[in-house]
C-alpha cells in the first residue's frame, strides 16, 4: 500500500484535488518540509509528460468520474483503520516539538495528532479557529494557569486564545484540532 503522503503529494502535483484540499496541502508544505519535498519530486517527475499531452479533449463524463473518485477517497478517510506505533511520519513543528498525524478529516478540516515535546519545549501563543481537545499521555503541559499531567484532558472552544504551552519534563499528548 502506498504511503498516504505520497498519494497526497501525487494528487497535488497533478491538480486532482478539490480547491479546499489543495489549500490545505499548500499550507502543510509551509511547515512540513518532507511533504513539500515529496510534492516537488512528483511535480518534477510528471512535468515532462506535459510535452507529450498535446491537445486532448476530455470525455464528457470525466468531471463526474473525478468527483466520484474524490467522494470515494473521503469515504475511505472516514473508515476504520489502524496506525501502528512504528508507522507514520514525525514532523518537526518547532524547537523540541514534533507531531505525527494520526487521522485527518478533510471535510471537517480537523486532524488528530500525536505531539512529542522535549523537556523545556515551548509552543507559542495561538488562537483556535475550531474547538481543540488535548489528552496528556505522559509528562506535563502548562499554559496560563492550567497545568496538565498524565491522564488529564483539556478542551478549548473555537475563538479562545491559548497562552504559550510549556513543558518542564517533556510531554506526549494527543490533540484534536483544526488543520
- The chain-level mean pLDDT equals 86
Structure class: alpha+beta
What CATH architecture of the largest domain do you see?
A: Sandwich
Count of distinct strands: 12
Give the neighbour order of strands across the main sheet. Answer: 1-2-3-12-6-9
What sequence of helices (H) and strands (E) makes up the elements?
A: HHHHHEEEEEEEEEEEE
| Oligomeric nature of the chains | single chain
**CATH level 1 class label of the largest domain:** Mainly Beta
Largest pleated sheet: 6 strands, antiparallel
What percentage of amino acids are in beta strands?
A: 25-35%
CATH topology of the largest domain: Jelly Rolls
Tally the structural domains. 2
Unreliable runs, pLDDT <50, ≥5 residues?
none
In CATH, what is the homologous superfamily of the largest domain? Jelly Rolls
Work out the radius of gyration.
Answer: 19 Å
Label the overall shape.
elongated
- Please give the count of helices: 5
Please provide a written account of the structure.
The protein has 179 residues and is α+β, with helices and mostly antiparallel strands. It folds into two domains: 75 residues, no CATH class; 89 residues, Jelly Rolls. The strands form four sheets. It has a six-stranded antiparallel beta sheet. A two-stranded antiparallel sheet has the order 4-11. The radius of gyration is 19 Å and the shape is elongated. The model has no long low-confidence stretch (mean pLDDT 86).
Amino acid at each position: 500500500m502506498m504511503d498516504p503522503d505520497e498519494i497526497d503529494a501525487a494528487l497535488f502535483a497533478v491538480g486532482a484535488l478539490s480547491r479546499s484540499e489543495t489549500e490545505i496541502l499548500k499550507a502543510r508544505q509551509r511547515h512540513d518540509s518532507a511533504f513539500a519535498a515529496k510534492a516537488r519530486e512528483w511535480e518534477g517527475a510528471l512535468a515532462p509528460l506535459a510535452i507529450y499531452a498535446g491537445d486532448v479533449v476530455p470525455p464528457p463524463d470525466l468531471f463526474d468520474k473525478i468527483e466520484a473518485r474524490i467522494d470515494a477517497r473521503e469515504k475511505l478517510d472516514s473508515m476504520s483503520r489502524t496506525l501502528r506505533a512504528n508507522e507514520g511520519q514525525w514532523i518537526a513543528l518547532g524547537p523540541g516539538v514534533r507531531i505525527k498525524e494520526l487521522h485527518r478529516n478533510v471535510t471537517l478540516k480537523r486532524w488528530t495528532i500525536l505531539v512529542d515535546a522535549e523537556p523545556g519545549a515551548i509552543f507559542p501563543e495561538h488562537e483556535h479557529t475550531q474547538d481543540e481537545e488535548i489528552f496528556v499521555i505522559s509528562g506535563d503541559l502548562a499554559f496560563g494557569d492550567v497545568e496538565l499531567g498524565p491522564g488529564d484532558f483539556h478542551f478549548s472552544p473555537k475563538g479562545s486564545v491559548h497562552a504559550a504551552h510549556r513543558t518542564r519534563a517533556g510531554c506526549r499528548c494527543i490533540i484534536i484540532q483544526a488543520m
